[in-house]
Specification:
- The chain has 718 residues and is α+β, with helices and mostly antiparallel strands.
- It is 36% helix and 15% strand.
- The strands form 11 sheets. Strands 25-24-30-26-27-28-29 form a 7-stranded mixed sheet.
- Strand 26, helix 15 and strand 27 form a beta-alpha-beta unit.
- Helix 1 runs parallel beside helix 12 and helix 3 packs across helix 5.
- The radius of gyration is 29 Å and the shape is elongated.
């Protein structure tokens, strides 16, 4: 306990020193510019540095000799709201609190609130649309429609851009007494809610601000949508309005049905959510486990967080985007704080010291790989460790705040942290702004939650550990991991999505031409940006021993690796045996019992090829993988083709097929009842009818008898 206390104290001191180094470098080398350029040791002043396009829209050129908000500059409405307006409001709340306590800040006369109100009015012209959805950009001096504004021609905005205004605008209204801000933010949320896809209850990524039509229909919880969901939940906590919670819960059910495939969070088509639209995830979704903690859904939060942690262990930081195989898709790391945020929430919810060790690793990696003499620099590519000359403001606003709070007991804080809600930039707003105070409904904590996570979860570290342990093989721990080979400048931007870990839906990995009942799967070409469609030939598992005699036929999916059953005239026959452990993610127990048999193994916890190698090593002659997702079946779910891990699979020589849960249950029930069950693995088009099976069996018996007689020699007696 003493060592732990000393370590935590040491880490807290380190975090404070890191903040001083980062903030002190900004004040020394960059103030009054918007951002520090940590490699150049100077400030980034808009117009004086090379234009970076939309990235610079987060820079307002607001701080000059004195703070001014009337600059002739086009800014992002979204970024200005969450960074500048939120920062002014959070600072006002803290300044006002200190003033009320006496002693400090007695000179303060709400100057920050007045500035916030002025900025709010300068953002309001963006809402001058027929729909109520805001323009994505506004000129702080000239608004949107003024000929001098140099903006107002945009027709689209992202869902998060329009849906991440309610906390700051509602707080501004309630602190200033001017309701216009909250009214506009509510209107924008109403439009997004009304335009959700009613069948799936999902929203798209980009919407037209004039006709309210979706422009990009992919749906996920990462970039473009993320904080829309966050603000629905937090608006309920801050404002006490059940309409926000009701909307969030409906969206959340849809997310968990279509997007969440623990530990993955996929992107799907909002109108056809069983279809995955890409084979990679972006790092912004790392906030979602923290939001799940607020929602009270701890298990998937732990699962996804553990996946993210293993990605950081593999690449030092979360790449800006990474594939479903944990490989780098976009190598940048902008010092984003979302992973630290979720780590903080999970530790406060579980009390598991494991998350303190995760936090320690974040601190150590920042110092080892991002620290430079003039602050901390973003990583241009996690594969090479090269730096980028930027240190975004969210690094100061969020990263150190979450790390400090992670290692600090709330009794040591000058405020009761449960009295506040974090904005998406980690600015604190008081829940006392609520005009209604709904009680915490103890009978239904997982639908209506209070801000305090202690109400939801007792400190139970073993609970989180049990869930995490299911993912210990997630990134191939215990086997060699080979980085993707550089094939060409366009190669490997998309990698073949291997079927792996606990519960990746087959339907989101498949594209089915349903009108023609063709079975297809989308596989990604190794050296091309475009996906290539391969026809998936349905296979079967045919039960051939008595009493089935070929009458029971189960539809199965094939594999891209191992023995090609389409080239085997009579398929592969054998008796089935359950592998132990059933997931086959580690060396097989009782390999003698498995040798010479077809193994049954449960999907999940590790990649198919990992299981395949363990089972092949144990002496199996074939493998039937069974889906662990209860109720899945081949009638409702398109078949998919199992693929490898991106490395060579030439060493895998067994035949493999995949059964959905319902078909798998038929097979395991037959094994439990009859103990000795023979099956035939073969393409569906070659499955044998009952008469054909009896005929083939007789031929094989005759061939066997003839072979035996031949072995005796010409003089052998019958």
């Amino acid at each position: 306990m003493l060592l732990s206390t000393l370590l935590i104290t040491s880490l807290l001191g380190w975090i404070i020193e890191m903040f001083d180094h980062a903030y002190g470098s900004y004040m020394k080398y960059a103030y009054p510019a918007d951002e520090l350029m940590p490699l150049s040791c100077r400030g980034r002043v808009r117009g004086q540095e090379p234009n970076r396009g939309d990235i610079d829209d987060s820079l307002g050129k607001k701080a000059m000799t004195d703070v001014r908000l009337d600059n002739d500059v086009v800014v992002s409405v979204f970024e200005t709201n969450i960074r500048v307006l939120g920062g002014l409001l959070g600072a006002h709340v803290m300044a006002d609190l200190l003033r009320q306590r006496g002693g400090r800040m007695q000179w303060y006369r709400d100057e920050l609130l007045h500035m916030a109100k002025e900025l709010g009015h300068r953002l309001l012209p963006a809402f001058n649309t027929t729909s109520g959805l805001p323009y994505p950009k506004v000129n702080l001096r000239y608004g949107v429609l003024n000929p001098l504004s140099r903006t107002g021609t945009e027709s689209d905005t992202c869902t998060a851009c329009a849906g991440t205004m309610i906390l700051e605008f509602a707080a501004l209204s309630r602190l200033s007494g001017d309701s216009i801000f909250e009214e506009h933010a509510r209107k924008a949320l109403d439009v997004l809610w009304q335009r959700r896809q009613k069948g799936s209850d999902l929203v798209g990524t980009v919407i037209n601000i004039h006709n309210e039509e979706w422009v990009r229909r992919e749906s996920g919880v990462g970039a473009g949508i993320d904080s829309y969901y966050e603000y629905l939940m937090k608006a309920y906590i801050l404002l006490g309005d059940n309409v926000f919670l009701d909307r969030f819960n409906i969206h959340y059910s849809a997310i968990m049905k279509y997007i969440s495939q623990p530990p993955l969070l996929l992107n799907v088509h909002m109108h056809n959510p069983t279809v995955s639209v890409r084979s990679w995830m972006d790092s912004l979704l790392a906030f979602f486990p923290g939001l799940q903690v607020l929602r009270g859904d701890l298990k998937p939060a732990i699962e996804t967080h553990e996946m993210l942690y293993q990605v950081t262990k593999q690449h030092k930081f979360l790449p800006e985007a990474f594939t479903t195989e944990f490989r780098v898709h976009w190598g940048q790391h902008l010092l984003r704080p979302e992973f630290a945020e979720s780590t903080y929430y999970l530790y406060k919810a579980t009390g598991d010291p494991y998350y303190l060790r995760v936090g320690q690793s974040i601190v150590e990696k920042l110092n080892a790989y991002a620290r430079v003499p003039c602050g901390f620099a973003a990583v241009q590519d996690v594969r090479t460790g090269t730096h980028e000359d930027r240190m975004d403001s969210f690094f100061l606003a969020e990263m150190f705040k979450y790390l400090y709070l992670l290692f600090t007991d709330k009794s040591q804080l000058p405020i009761d942290i449960d009295d506040y809600i974090f904005t998406t930039e980690a600015h604190l707003l008081p829940v006392s702004l609520s005009t209604t105070q709904p009680p915490c409904r103890e009978e239904d904590l997982f639908t209506h939650t209070c801000p305090s996570m202690e109400t939801l979860f007792p400190n139970n570290p073993s609970f989180a550990k049990t869930i995490r342990d299911s993912y210990k093989y997630l990134t191939g721990v215990g086997r060699t991991f080979n980085a993707p080979k550089r094939v060409s400048t366009v190669a490997l931007l998309f990698l073949v999505s291997c079927e792996w870990v606990s519960g990746l839906k087959p339907e989101v990995r498949s594209v089915v031409a349903t009108h023609f009942k063709l079975y297809r799967v989308k596989l990604v070409a190794e050296v091309s940006h475009t996906a290539e469609e391969d026809e998936v030939m349905p296979h079967v598992v045919q039960l051939i021993s008595p009493p089935f005699l070929g009458r029971t036929v189960l539809t199965a999916g094939p594999a891209k690796f191992g023995l090609d059953l389409t080239k085997q005239e009579h398929g592969v026959k054998g008796s089935i045996v359950k592998a132990s452990p059933y997931t086959a993610c580690e060396p097989i127990d009782g390999a003698v019992d498995l040798k010479g048999h077809i193994a049954l193994a449960l999907r999940g916890e590790c990649m198919f090829v990992v299981k395949a190698r363990w089972l092949q090593q144990a002496g199996a002659i074939g493998v039937i993988f069974i889906d662990h997702r209860e109720g899945s079946n081949s009638q409702d779910t398109p078949l998919f083709q199992m693929v490898g891990d991106g490395d060579s699979t030439k060493d895998i020589t067994l035949p493999f097929v995949f059964l959905f849960s319902r078909e798998g249950a038929v097979l395991t029930a037959a094994l439990e009842e009859h103990h000795n069950v023979d099956v035939l693995l073969l393409p569906k088009e070659r499955q044998l009818g009952h008469g054909e099976w009896r005929h083939q069996q007789q031929e094989e018996e005759a061939d066997s008898s003839q072979s035996a007689n031949s072995d005796r020699g010409p003089d052998a007696s019958p």
